[in-house]
């Protein structure tokens, strides 16, 4: 386990591939955009501390995002409304190419976590010996 993604729990390793995507609470919506240099994921996680979010890359091709921490408040009295999401969620995404696992970074702002997964470049520099 590595906490290199600025306070997020990050796990390196292998895990079985689960084909289904199964968020168990409403606030696990994810936007994913691929740019020329990275995959950028934005996850709605209102009310969660960043330390409760776990990011894992399995075999450099599956990004897994898990979170959960909401607990029912202990309040003396009668609840009239209990609408905020509670529980946990788990999402995973098959990345379309190799990524730089050690350079993944994340930050949160106003209940939205952004995870930046840099791509590995498939280009290799070669040294050409030019004839005089």
What report would you give on this structure?
The chain is mainly beta and 132 residues long. 0% of the residues lie in helices and 41% in strands. It is built from no helices and nine strands. The strands form two sheets. Strands 1-2-5-6-7 form a five-stranded mixed sheet, with no helix packed on it. It has a four-stranded antiparallel sheet with strand order 3-4-9-8, with no helix packed on it. Strand 8 and strand 9 form a beta hairpin. About 8% of the residues have low confidence.
Order of strands, main sheet, comes to 1-2-5-6-7
Elements, N to C (H/E): EEEEEEEEE
Mean pLDDT: 75
Strand segment count: 9
**How many strands, what sense, and barrel or not for the largest sheet?**
5 strands, mixed
> What ranges have pLDDT less than 50 throughout 5 or more consecutive residues?
14-24
| CA-based shape | rod-shaped
Count of DSSP H/I helices:
0
Strand content: 35-45%
Q: Termini, distance in Å?
A: 53 Å
Helical residue percent? under 10%
- Counting helices, strands and paired strands, the structural category is mainly beta
């Amino acid at each position: 386990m590595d906490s290199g993604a600025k306070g997020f729990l990050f796990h390196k390793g292998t895990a079985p591939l689960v084909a289904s995507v199964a968020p168990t609470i409403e606030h696990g919506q994810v936007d994913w955009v691929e740019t020329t240099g990275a995959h950028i994921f934005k996850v709605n996680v209102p009310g969660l501390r960043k330390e409760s979010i776990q990011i894992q890359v399995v075999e450099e091709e599956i990004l897994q995002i898990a979170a959960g921490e909401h607990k029912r408040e202990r309040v003396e009295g009668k609840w009239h409304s209990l609408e905020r999401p509670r529980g946990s969620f788990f999402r995973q995404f098959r990345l379309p190419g190799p990524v730089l696992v050690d350079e993944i970074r994340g930050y949160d702002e106003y209940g939205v976590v952004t995870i930046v997964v840099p791509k590995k470049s498939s280009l290799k520099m070669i040294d050409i010996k030019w004839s005089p």
